[in-house]
Design goal:
Blueprint lengths: L17 E6 L10 H24 L4 E6 L8 H10 L5 H6 L7 E5 L10 H8 L3 E7 L4 H11 L3 E3 L5 E2 L3 H14 L12 H9 L16
Parallel strand pairs: 1-2, 1-4, 2-3, 4-5, 4-6
Length: about 220
C-alpha cells in the first residue's frame, strides 16, 4: 500500500512543478484605503488575468489563496458571491479574476498563505517546486506568503506588475527586498515563460563530485 494517496482522494488531479498563486484578489476592498488600493489593483488585475490564462494554457495549476476576512462561517464561494453581487468596491477585480471550476482555493486566517492552512499539503500533492506569487497586497500578504515559501525552499517568481499595494513606493521597495533577500525573480509578467519555469524546476541539482582518494605520502 502506498504511503499516501497519489491525488488526495481525487481532489488533486494535477501534477506540476510550477503553480500560480493569486493572493487575496477576491476582496471587497470595503475598508479605509480600499478605493486607493482599487486604483492600483485594477490595472494589476488585467495583467494578472492574462498571466492566469497563459498559466492554464501551459498546464500550470492556479491556486486562490484568500483571506476569510474574519467571516469564520463563510466559505470561498460565499466570499466570491459577496464580491460579485453586493456592489462592493472590489467587484471589478473579482469579475476580472473570478475562479474557474478546476482552480484550487485555500482560505487563510492571517497574512501568510501558509499559516494554519492546507496550502502545504496541496502543494506537496501537486509536486510544486516553483511558486509564482501574485495579488494583494505586495507589502503585506504577498510578502508574508513569500517569506514562508522561501523558508520551505520554494523557488519564487513574483512578477512586479502583478502585485499591488496602497503605496506604489512601498510596493516597489518590497519587491526589491524580496528579490534581494529571497532570490525572487521579479521580472514583469510578459517576460514569464511557464514552459521555461517548468524546465528549470525539473532540473535536479548536480551531485557533488566524488573526492579524489588521497595518495599515500612516501
Amino acid at each position: 500500500m502506498p504511503a499516501k494517496n497519489e491525488d488526495l482522494h481525487g481532489f488533486v488531479p494535477d501534477k506540476s512543478n510550477v503553480a500560480l498563486l493569486l493572493i487575496d484578489v477576491i476582496n471587497d476592498l470595503d475598508f479605509g484605503g480600499g478605493e486607493e488600493l482599487l486604483r492600483h489593483a485594477l490595472p494589476m488585475a488585467r495583467r494578472l488575468a492574462e498571466l492566469k490564462r497563459r498559466a492554464r494554457a501551459a498546464g500550470v495549476p492556479v491556486v486562490y489563496v484568500n483571506d476569510n476576512f474574519g467571516k469564520w462561517q463563510s466559505d470561498f464561494k460565499k466570499i466570491l458571491e459577496h464580491c460579485l453581487k453586493d456592489g462592493v468596491p472590489g467587484r471589478p477585480v473579482a469579475e476580472l479574476l473570478r475562479p474557474e471550476e478546476d482552480d484550487y482555493f485555500v482560505l487563510k486566517p492571517k497574512h501568510s498563505g501558509f499559516f494554519s492552512t492546507t496550502l502545504d499539503i496541496l502543494l506537496d500533492y501537486l509536486g510544486v517546486k516553483t511558486l509564482v506569487l501574485t495579488g494583494l497586497t505586495g507589502d503585506i500578504c504577498v510578502l508574508f506568503t513569500a517569506h514562508d515559501a522561501y523558508m520551505r525552499d520554494f523557488h519564487l517568481v513574483i512578477p512586479s506588475d502583478c502585485v499591488a499595494s496602497n503605496d506604489p513606493g512601498e510596493n516597489e521597495y518590497t519587491l526589491e527586498k524580496m528579490a534581494r533577500l529571497m532570490d525572487a525573480d521579479t521580472r514583469p509578467s510578459n517576460e514569464i515563460d511557464f514552459a521555461e519555469l517548468k524546465r528549470l524546476a525539473k532540473r535536479e541539482p548536480e551531485p557533488n563530485p566524488e573526492p579524489e582518494p588521497k595518495r599515500a605520502t612516501p
